[in-house]
Amino acid sequence: MVNSMSKLIHRTAEKANVPPEVITRGMTVAILAVYALRIGYPILCSSLTIVGNKAREAQEKISSTSPIRSLERNQLLTDEDVEQPLKTFEKKSRKDSKSLTIQELTDGLTKQKLHLSPAFNKQFLLQLVKLIRIMIPKVHSVEMGLLGLHTLSLVTRSFLSIYVARLEGHVVKNIVRKDIMKFALQLSKWLLVAIPATFINSLIRFLESQLALAFRTRLVRHAYDLYFKNQTYYRVSNLDGRLENADHCLTDDITTFSQSVAHLYSHITKPFLDVVIINFTLLKMARSMGSFSVAGNVLGGAMVSLTGHILRKLSPKFGKLVAEEEKRKGYLRFIHSRLIANSEEIAFYGGHEVELTMLQRSYRSLARQMNLIFNKRLYYVMLEQFLMKYCWSAVGMIIISLPVLTGKQQTENGDGDKDDGVSTRTQYMTTAKNILIAGADAVERLMSSYKEVTELAGYTSRVSKMFTVFEDVSQGKYQRTLATLNTRESKKSFKVQGLTFINGMPEIKGTVIEREDGILKLEHVPIITPNCDVVVPDLSFTMTKGMHLLITGPNGCGKSSLFRILRGLWPTYAGRLVRPPTGQMFYIPQRPYMSLGTLRDQVIYPDTVKDMKKKGLTDKDLASILAIVNLQSIITREGGWDAIGDWKDILSGGEKQRMGVARLFYHRPQFALLDECTSAVSIDVESKMYQAIKDFDISLLTITHRPSLWQFHTHLLQFDGEGSWHLEPLDTNTRLSLREEKERLEAQLTGVPQMEGRLQELCTLLGEDSVVLRRPSADGTEDSLQEKTPVANTEPLSD
Ligand SMILES: Nc1ncnc2c1ncn2[C@@H]1O[C@H](COP(=O)(O)OP(=O)(O)OP(=O)(O)O)[C@@H](O)[C@H]1O
């Protein structure tokens, strides 16, 4: 076979009839052209992609006159997904969203679009650079060290591949020459080199994982800093509407993104190095065979460019697809965590079918998206394999055979071959084949990494959107998506003096001043919900020491919202708020939060044991605190202060509320914001606790419906549910007697409809009229009861 190949080479050389020098020059020019093409082409493609995307964005801006169309096009949402937030919005806000102007809707949707079109474009590169700055903050960092080490191992691996391929060539050559000694020597070398080669392979994987973990750690640290800055964890879901599942972004998205970056680095760097080194090696080898494989190189270069172009053209938009997949994964996880958090309530209601339907629906939506990706991959991978495996193999065979077919005949080499150069050519063919396989593999990996880059664009878009939202929210910049936003034009809203709305969101213009002197003062502060409903347009009151405020009003009138503003959870959109530092205002909700940890941790929450010791408090003090709320028995019942448990489930509703109040005695703030926090506690214990709070010199701001608590307050702030309010000193006795009278009248009036009915019957039976039924109505006119009731005969009976 080797002989026939040699003959073929002779014949081809004769037929070509070209002086070797001319071919050599031509080949040099062609090689340079191929390398220029290989390096220049990707750069050219990137620039064209950027220009193309810009043009497309501009085109979309012009043509996006239909907001719903642009929502569908840009968000990759299904009909269900589009309708769902709108339904939620309608239910939640109870307002008419049709009052939005088309311009407002379009503006909002265009903004949404910017976040939801991940692809390989300028936006992706900018986002990636920003994230890389977080992942590698400085040159002298652990990440940079890992990156350097990783690169070094990749380079070493590439050189080792060439060395191993060469060794294999020598091994085969010595087999052909039947030189046993040299064969044994080369084989031993081959085995010896396997030790560093396998170690380097393992090291590459190790460093890739280390790099991914280091990137993840940096990102997580940065994300946590932002997430816990200015209560962003609360605001991001309550005041801003851009990020749906922050938990999923903080866990899965960051992990996938860092793994993808680290993987892509080695996935691109290694094959790139391989391609460069292999090409030079092949060239050198071809030269040693007396010929440049230039025609082969030109062919190879053209093949790479052509297949690259085809794959890029036909590649599905993996970036968008995976971003949508991640979104749906996040939603499924959200439904699961809601089920776990509310399992008892759902079990009591027997609501498992509704929950199951929701879970199934969200799983189906995820599975649909995954299926879509799999389907798209099916054809893409098929095309990829066809082009890269078969077309390239054919080209590869041509490339390695050309130097042999067209090169100078070597009958003797340095090793003293006397076999018409057959063993040398066999060595060349073996080495070249091995190197070419490695090269083809490298180019295939380079080409397939385009798909990974587009997928990375999806993860980059999600992570970078999360950081943008966190940064905005921590600085008090909020955005609601228009699907969940109510505008000031809604019918229940009021005009608020001096408030400007930008994109339907009021500008935050209020002043908040923190003072230590125990004064709480609101001057013309409006209560505005995150949906921009103005619940109370202008609220002003001052609380001084010794004042205890009772807050009443119908449901949804803004009582709890007032607490949110006082505690700084909601912005002060206008006016002036003077308040003590946040640590001096302690809020207790109706369902107090139980933390993870020991029994001690429950009492001192949110302090730590270290804080407790700093304050000079001991477990004995905690026990006396629990005694005030009649909860001392749980210390022994639960096994001491260090007992750990799921306190949310261990303690009963009333016990949890008492624990909530116990925290107040531990922290001793200036103000206690009590939001129905003792509704499950018996009246006697409740009274004892309130008296103790007053004895601790803590000012009360209480939301309650229990008259038994009136006596502990000096003032009453009453909302009417229509935006108005009044503040007055609370005279408990008068109020109690008024209430008694009201209840008495209510009890008396309960029987009136029945009595009226009976009277009506009697009138009908007797054929007589009744003066009682003709009573005046509220507007002063005569009641229409008489008219409503058919009276048999109102005429006096004639004799
Ligand atoms: N996170 C939120 N996002 C949007 N709107 C909200 C939010 N929280 C409360 N609201 C709205 O603010 C309004 C006032 O709510 P708030 O909780 O202050 O009522 P409340 O007076 O305490 O009622 P209740 O006596 O029923 O507790 C309601 O219309 C409510 O729908």
UniProtKB/TrEMBL annotation:
The lineage of its organism: Eukaryota, Metazoa, Ecdysozoa, Arthropoda, Chelicerata. Residues 520-775 form the ABC transporter domain. PANTHER family: ATP-BINDING CASSETTE SUB-FAMILY D MEMBER 1, ATP-BINDING CASSETTE, SUB-FAMILY D MEMBER. Keywords: ATP-binding, Membrane, Nucleotide-binding, Transmembrane, Transmembrane helix, Transport. SMART domains: AAA (SM00382). It comes from the Eukaryota. Residues 775-799 are annotated as: Disordered. This is ATP-binding cassette sub-family D member 1-like. CDD domains: ABCD_peroxisomal_ALDP (cd03223). Belongs to the ABC transporter superfamily. ABCD family. Peroxisomal fatty acyl CoA transporter (TC 3.A.1.203) subfamily.
